[in-house]
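It is worth pausing here to work through a concrete case rather than discussing structure prediction in the abstract. The textbook approach is simple: state the sequence, then state the predicted structure, then interpret. We follow exactly that order.
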Amino acid sequence: MSLGKKLLAHLQVHLLGTGLLRFQRWNAELAQRRSKKKFGEHLAPPLHISARTKELIYRHYLMGRYAQGVKKVAWVTSGAPSELFRAMDFYVYYPENHSAVCGTMRQCVSLASYAEEAGYARDLCSYARTDIGAVLSGKTPVGRLPKPDVLMACTNICQTVLFWYRVLAQHFQVPLILIDTPFVYAQIEDHAVEYVKRQLEDAVSIVERIAGKPLKWSRLQKVTQLSKATSELWLEILYTARHVPAPLSVFDQFIQMAPIVEMRGEAYTVDFYASMLKELRQRVANGMGVVKDEKRRLLWDNLPIWFRLRWMAELLAERGAVLIASTYTHAWGELAPLIDAQRPLESAARVYLLPILNRSTGDKLRLMLEMVSQFQLHGVILHSDRSCKPYSLGQMDQRDRLIHEHRLPALLLEADHNDPRSFSEGQAVNQLQAFLEVLGV
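Step two, the predicted structure:
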């Protein structure tokens, strides 16, 4: 790409685009401070940091729109060791996050239909169908997606990503780096860590060849340290919900987790979460709860229902119930102590072996019971997600054990994280209301 085109891209992104987004954020923050309108009869106003969240997300996709020819581009799964690409100055794009954005903007069905018309079954993950549909149609609510120079799929979340990314690799005719992570049935084994570490070492060579330059290990250590700091802050943020009343809900966490997924390893992400933690601590000091009359505190298991976040938050809040903890959002912070910037590849091998979906269903039940105790919870909602079968595996047994062995009310709620065609609002209302009656609210 010519120097002139690079300067033009820099002008469009870092001066005009970023400046406009910052101005919009300042206006939103000012309007929120001046507003006397109630957010809801039962819900507290949204976090002030939310305007900054929107700015970061929009800027991330704006950078992607003009990345091609300016930076190398990597498409990666959410559970992949993206620190390697950050250290090599790639633009890193997450198809799952993009699909979640499409879900919240109610565009999943229109995009997934392109994939379904091409022969992909509706039984497939709705993230995969949304992403493949966006690739095939060229349509996206974020403007334009950058063509990848390389793909990386890590099997620690599911096997679907392997076949999904093979489709993308064939479509774009670019290399696919596969990081295979053995399932952890009990304790993590040293040979498994060594096996993943060797794959990461091989990946370094591939990425160096694509980037056309060597990896600076000091830079990888710095990026790893920033990822660790981000994860530690995120865990502290989640732990503020231990307070009664809870200053944030799971619905807040679902929105605010975007930077830690697609922007970890960046200094501005650390700064963002430090600011968010400060705001939440102020809410705790003021005794401000996210639900104005908190009566019951609940745990959420599995991915969110992206197209019904506000609806469910209000439905629960009307009865004084609040979802304050989630196995899904907890996964982005629980492994922070294992991150070691001095040994970036070895610690990455260990960390990326241990996401919740790469561990046993018994281990997930143990985690849920720990969270019930830590957050003083009264019940559990397990989202039986049509699209995420690995996360939903074992939920019926987990529900039964929660109810019968631990005397804890638990609901199995059938839905889909992205596709509203696999969701019945009437059925969900009946299930949730019956569950709340069991909880006594």
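Step three, interpretation. The mean pLDDT is 93. The chain is about 55% helix and 10% strand.
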